[in-house]
Design brief:
Lambda Exonuclease, Chain A; globular; two-stranded parallel ribbon
Length: 273
C-alpha cells in the first residue's frame, strides 16, 4: 500500500520530472533498491562516501574548527585533493571572512498539500547579498545550462525567498539578493554561479505549486520515454528495461541519491501556514 507522502524535496521533484514511475517506486512504495545504479559499483560507492565526508569536513571548518585539525581527516587521495583545493580556492576567500554563516541548514515551507524541504550546505550573508553554496564532488564538470534547469537550482533559490526571513531578522529575502554557487572540488576555479530575479522566482514558485498539485492528484505514474535514463535507475528491473548498470561518471549527472532528512519541524526555519 503506498504511503501518504507529506514532504517534497528537490530530489523527489527531480525524480518525478525524470520518471514518474521511479518517483512512485522510491517515494510512495518505498521499495528497496533491487539493482545497482552504476558500474563499477564498489568504486562508485567509495566516491559517494568520500563526497559525503568532504561535506562534513567543509562544515566542520566553516563552524570554526581549526584548519589543521580538520585536515587530519582528509585521509584519502580524493579527500586530500579536494581539501587542498577548498583551502586554496580564491573563490571561497571572501566566504571564509563572512559572518553569519549557516551550515547544513534545513528550510521548509508549505507547498500545496505538502511541505517543501531543502537542506543547504551553506548559506552566507554579506551585506545585502545572500549566497547559497552547494558542494558537488562530480568527476565531470556539468554544463551551466544543465544545472540551471535542475530542480535543485530552482528549489533552493525559491525556498530561500519563501522561507529565508527566519535567518534574516524576520525580514524577507528578495530574489535579487540571492546568488547560488555550485563549487566543484575537482574544478576549483570553475564554479557555477546563478543569480536570481523576481520574475524567475514567480516562474519557479508557480511551477512548484503546479507540480505539487499534479503529484497530489496523480493516480497513474508512467515510465519515462527516455529509455537511456533507465541504465542509471536502480528500479529498472521492475520495468524490464535492462540489467546492466550505466557508467558511474555519467550517472552522477543523471541521478543523485535523496538526502535523508531527520525532520524535526520545530527546529527548521519555515514560514507559517
Amino acid at each position: 500500500m503506498p504511503i501518504q507522502l507529506t514532504t517534497l524535496s528537490q530530489s523527489s521533484l527531480q525524480d518525478y520530472n525524470d520518471c514518474p514511475r521511479r518517483f512512485e517506486l522510491r517515494y510512495l512504495e518505498q521499495l528497496a533498491y533491487p539493482a545497482i545504479e552504476t558500474e563499477p559499483a564498489l568504486e562508485n560507492e567509495k566516491h559517494q562516501k568520500e563526497g559525503e565526508y568532504f561535506h562534513r569536513l567543509a562544515q566542520q571548518h566553516l563552524i570554526g574548527i581549526p584548519t589543521e585539525q580538520v585536515a587530519k581527516f582528509a585521509n584519502t587521495e580524493n579527500l586530500q585533493r579536494w581539501w587542498d583545493n577548498y583551502i586554496h580556492a580564491k573563490d571561497l576567500t571572501g566566504l571564509k571572512d563572512l559572518s553569519g554563516l549557516k551550515t547544513e541548514i534545513t528550510l521548509s515551507a508549505p507547498l500545496g498539500k505538502f511541505r517543501l524541504v531543502a537542506k543547504y550546505d551553506l548559506i552566507g550573508f554579506d551585506g545585502d547579498k545572500v549566497y547559497i553554496y552547494d558542494w558537488k564532488t562530480y568527476r565531470k564538470r556539468p554544463k551551466n545550462e544543465w544545472l540551471a534547469i535542475r530542480w535543485q537550482t530552482r528549489v533552493y533559490r525559491a525556498l530561500l525567498v519563501q522561507a529565508g526571513a527566519h535567518f534574516n531578522g524576520g525580514k524577507p529575502i528578495q530574489p535579487e539578493q540571492i546568488e547560488m554557487i555550485y563549487w566543484f572540488p575537482d574544478f576549483p576555479n570553475d564554479p557555477a554561479r546563478f543569480a536570481y530575479k523576481a520574475d524567475q522566482f514567480k516562474r519557479d514558485w508557480d511551477a512548484l505549486t503546479k507540480l505539487a498539485d499534479e503529484i497530489a492528484t496523480a493516480s497513474i505514474f508512467p515510465k519515462t520515454d527516455e529509455v537511456s535514463k533507465c541504465s542509471y535507475c536502480p528500479y529498472r528491473s521492475y520495468c524490464n528495461r535492462g540489467v546492466r548498470a550505466g557508467d558511474a561518471v555519467e550517472a552522477e549527472l543523471e541521478t543523485e541519491a535523496e538526502e535523508l532528512f531527520d525532520i524535526n519541524f520545530e527546529q527548521i526555519g519555515e514560514i507559517e501556514f
